[in-house]
Amino acid sequence: MADKHRHNIDSEISLTYITTSRKLTAVASLGVTIGVAIYIFMNSMAAGFSKKSDATMFKNVPHVRVYKDDEISAPLRAGAGNGALPVIVNPRVVPESQKIINPDQVLALLRQQPEVVIATPQVGVDVFYNSGRTQIAGTASGVIIEEADKMFSIAETMVEGRMEDLKSTPNGILVGVGVAQKMSVKTGDNITITSSRNVTKVMKVVGMFKTSNSNIDKTKSYINISTARQLKLESPSYVSDIDVNVKDYDNAARYSAQLSFLTGYKAEDWKAANETLVAAARMRTILINVISMSILLVAGFGIYNILNMTINQKINEIAILKAMGFQGRDVVRIFVQQAMMIGLGGIVMGSLLCSLLVYALQHVYVGGDIGYFPIHFEPQMYTRGIIFGLIITFFAGYFPARKASNVDPVSIFRK
C-alpha cells in the first residue's frame, strides 16, 4: 500500500515537471515525433521497394531454375618420368546438348517435394523477330501457357488479346508491348521469327503483355513449347529448363541445394541468378536502416539533454526530496517516467504523421515501370519503430536519472 502511494507521488512529480516545462517538453516530444515518423516511413519505403522489385523479378524469373550446366574439359596432366604426355592446359566448354534426360521423371520427382508449389518445363530460344525490313533480337520462351501463368502471372500483364488463345493456336505468339511497338504489329497480325538454328516460322500474334520491366517487354515473347522445340530442331521430348516455385522464396537457396542433389542437375536460385540486384537491394536496405536509426538516436539525445537541464535546474528540489526520505530508486522512477511520457507522446504523434505520409505517397503516380509509389502500411515497421522508440526513450531518461539519484542532499545544502 505504501509502495503504491509512493508510486502515485512519483508520477505526480513527473507530471508536474512536464507541465511546468512545457516548451522543453514540446521540443523533446517533437524530436521523438520526427524520429519515429522518419524511421517507420523510411523502413516502410524500403519494404515497399523490396516487394516491388521482387514482384517485378518474379514475372520473369522462377524461384529455382533446374538445368544442365556447362561442363568444362579437364586439363591433361603429364605423368611422371620419361615418355610422359605433354601438358595441355586449355579448358573449354564441352560441346554437349543442354537437354534434360527423362524430363517427365524429373518433373514428377520435383512435384513430389513438399516445398515445391509448381514445376513446369521450358525451352528457351534465341530468335530474331522479323516484320518487313525490321529485325529485332530477342528471346522466345516455349512454355505450357497455363503452367507458366501460375508461375509468372502472365494473365495479369496482358494488355491486348487473350493469353488462353496461345494454347489453341499452334503458331501463336504472345509478344511484349515493346516488341509490338518496334515492329508496328497488333493482335491478329503475322510476324516471322528466325531461330539460332536458322529455322524460320510465321507466327500469329494472339496477344501482348506488359511487365514492369521495359527490357523484358522489348525482347521477350511466349510461344508453345512444341513450337520452340521445332525452332531448335529438337525432339518432341526436349526440355532445356525446369522452372520451380517454392513456398518460401527467401529460402530458395536452401531448396535449390536439395533439388540439385535429388535431380543431379544444376539448380540455381533467384538470388544467385540476380546477385548484383540482390546485393544492391541489401545495400539500400542497410543504408536506409542506418539513416533512420541515426535520426531516432538524435531524438533520444534530445530527451537526454532536456532531462539533464531539468535535473540541473531542480537539483535543490531533488536534495529536498531525498532529505524527506525519497530513495534513489524513487528519483530514478520520477525522471524515467518523465522521459517515457515525453516518448509516448512523440511515438503516438510520429505514428500518425507517418501514416499521413504513407497515405499521401500511395496516391502519387511516378510513372515508368514503377507506376504508383511503392509504399504500403507495414505493421511490422510500426511495431519496430514503437519498440525502438520506447527503448531509446527509456535509456535517454535512465542515464540522467541515475545521475540525479546519486545527489547527496548534505553537500547540496552546504553550498
TrEMBL record:
Top-level division of the source organism's lineage: Bacteria
- Pfam families in the cross-refs: FtsX (PF02687), MacB_PCD (PF12704)
Annotated TM spans: 24-42, 286-307, 339-361, 381-399
Record keywords, A-Z = Cell membrane, Membrane, Transmembrane, Transmembrane helix
Sections of the chain in a coiled coil = none
Residue stretches making up the ABC3 transporter permease C-terminal domain: 290-409
Q: Please give an example of a GO cellular component term from this record.
A: plasma membrane protein complex
Provide the topology term for how it sits in the membrane.
Multi-pass membrane protein
Question: Membrane among the record's keywords?
Answer: yes
Q: Which GO terms describe its biological process?
A: lipoprotein localization to outer membrane
What InterPro entries is this protein classified in? ABC3_permease_C, Lipoprotein-release_system, MacB_PCD
Q: Which PANTHER family match?
A: LIPOPROTEIN-RELEASING SYSTEM TRANSMEMBRANE PROTEIN LOLE
Family that this chain belongs to: Belongs to the ABC-4 integral membrane protein family. LolC/E subfamily.
Name under which the protein is recorded: ABC transporter permease
Taxonomy, top ranks, is:
Bacteria, Pseudomonadati, Bacteroidota, Chitinophagia, Chitinophagales
